[in-house]
Structure formats: C-alpha cells, structure tokens
Amino acid sequence: MDLSESVNKAVSFISNLVPAKATTAVILGSGLGGFGDQIEVIEKIMYTSIPGFPEPTVAGHGGNLLFGKINGEYVWVMQGRFHFYEGHDMQTVTFPVRVLAQLGVKTLLLSNASGGVNPQYKVGDLMVLDDHINLMSANPLTGSNNDAWGPRFPDMSRPYDPELIDEALMVAGKNNFVCHKGVYAAVTGPCYETRAEYKYIRTIGADAVGMSTVPEVIVARHMGLRCFAISVITDLGGMEQEVELTHDEVVKVAGEAESKVTHIIRHLISKGF
User: Fold this and answer.
1) Which positions ≥6 away from 145 have C-beta within 8 Å?
2) Angle between the N-to-C axes of helices 95-102 and 214-222, in degrees from 0 to 180, rounded to the nearest 10
3) Proportion of the chain above pLDDT 70, given as a percent
4) Are 63 and 79 in contact (CB under 8 A)?
5) Residues with Cβ < 8 Å from 241, sequence gap 6 or more?
6) Total domain count for the chain?
7) Measured between alpha carbons, how far is residue 208 from residues 73, 82, 123, 231, 262 in Å?
8) 10 Å Cβ neighbour count for 70?
9) Longest Cα pair distance anywhere in the chain, in angstroms?
C-alpha cells in the first residue's frame, strides 16, 4: 500500500467516527499533553486504532487523537507525536499531518520542549518559532511527489505564519509571559547535545534546539497549511553550570509552563485562524 492509499484509509476510518469538520489542529509535545483537558471532547481515538498510526514510546507523550470544541471552535488535538529517533521513517513521523490535512485542517499549531542556546533565554521561557534549521539528515519530502498534495519543490521562505506569530506575541505580552521569537534547530536525538554541539548550533544561527516539529511543518507547508509553533525552553545548553540533563526534568519544566502555552493556543483558536 503506497502512502496516499494509507492516508486515505486512515481518513476514512476517522471520518466514519467523526463526521464533523475542523480547520485547526494542535500537536502537543513533551509534557504538554494536558491541553486536551481544556477542550470539550466529542471523540477520543487511540492512535493504535487508527490505520497507519504507530504507538508513541516516549514518556510525556500520550497516544490519543481528540476531536472537540474549544471556545466554540471545532479542533483536532494530537496528544503526543512520533519522532525520528524512535526508529520511524519520516513518512511515519509526518503521517498524521497528511491525514489531518485530508480531513480538512487548514491551520496547524504545534508545541515542543527545547533547549535554549541563546544566552538571553532562561529555563521556563517560551519561544515562538520564526524560522528553523533542519539538521535531521532527512527530509519527509524525499521520494516521489504526490502533485495533488503539493509541489515537488515547495517554498519554505516563511514556514511559520507571520500573523499567527504577531498574535501570539501580543497575547504573551499582555499576560506578562516571557516569550521570545527565534530560530529552532531540529536534530535527530535521542541523546542531548554535547557542549560543542550546543556551541555549533548557536553559531549557525539557532536560538533553541529540539528533536521534533520541523518534519511536521515541512509536510504541512507542502500541503498548504498555515503553521505556528511554540517552544518551552526546558534547559540551557552549554550556558549554565554543568548539570546532567534528563527527560524527566524536561517534562517537569514543560509541565510548569503548560498553562502559558495553553493560554496562547486557546487564543489563536478562538480568533479563528
């Protein structure tokens, strides 16, 4: 079964359970899955029941696709994502984005936990993505192109929507959230970076580094979706006294900032973007 057939099979399965449409979808990162508690859930679908969806293996990532309402707007919410470092190929990592687009989604909102490499950042700060650098040694568009989904050579000069960025920064400012605008570097993981790697990532122009988001955004932009992404800065790579970084600590810090991320995403949804 080729990719388009697999996507159509998943779309058919989900559509039979949820005949209603939503034009906005949210993908939640490490420690940020609680956003699902903010919506009026109409349908909860386990990933493992959806054709083509694997099971998440990372702590802090749930495994449910939610459909419901928030502030009167229908929305899809992915509690947890799939990562390249889990052993999935890029088509699997980005498969849910293809499915969401075929279900009628036009705007994709993403969150993640990332390490700060900008010396002005502090643990617990937020960063709205203005651009990214793909250091994952792979691209989800490699291989044959489905012209019905998007062009062979999609433009990526503005992967993140300027209007959504401005709106998010405005909301953050009104609520006194420390929220930067910066560049996100995506690496394969799963190990955290060495001090030299953090320095390299900062030198090439990034403000934060993580192990997700970029493949999903590439596919979303290929299919014409508007994208917005926000990071919680969970550690400071190479800039603070040497401490051993653990995933538990990343999830803990992300969870502490979850209410701020939730407030921003709720606002963007309520504005009908």
Assistant:
1) 151, 152
2) 30
3) 90
4) yes
5) none
6) 1
7) 31, 20, 11, 8, 20
8) 21
9) 53
Tell me the per-residue pLDDT of 180-226, one tens digit each, with 9 for 90 and over. 999 999 999 999 899 899 999 999 999 999 999 999 999 999 999 99
Model pLDDT for residues 135-179, shown as the tens digit of each residue: 999 999 999 999 999 999 999 999 999 999 999 999 999 999 999
- Which residue range(s) make up the domain with 183? 3-270
The domain that holds 80 is classified in CATH as 3.40.50.1580
Identity at 195, one-letter amino acid code? R
Residue type, 225: L
pLDDT tens by residue, 35-71: 778 889 999 999 999 999 987 766 555 689 999 999 8
Whole-angstrom distance, CA of residue 37 vs CA of residue 34: 6
Average pLDDT of the residues in 255-263: 85
- What local confidence, expressed as pLDDT, does residue 36 receive? 78
- Strand partners for 128: 181, 230
Beta carbons within 8 Å of 236's beta carbon, 6+ residues apart: 115, 116, 117, 121, 122, 123
| Angstrom distances, CA of residue 263 to CA of 101, 171, 220, 268 | 24, 8, 23, 9
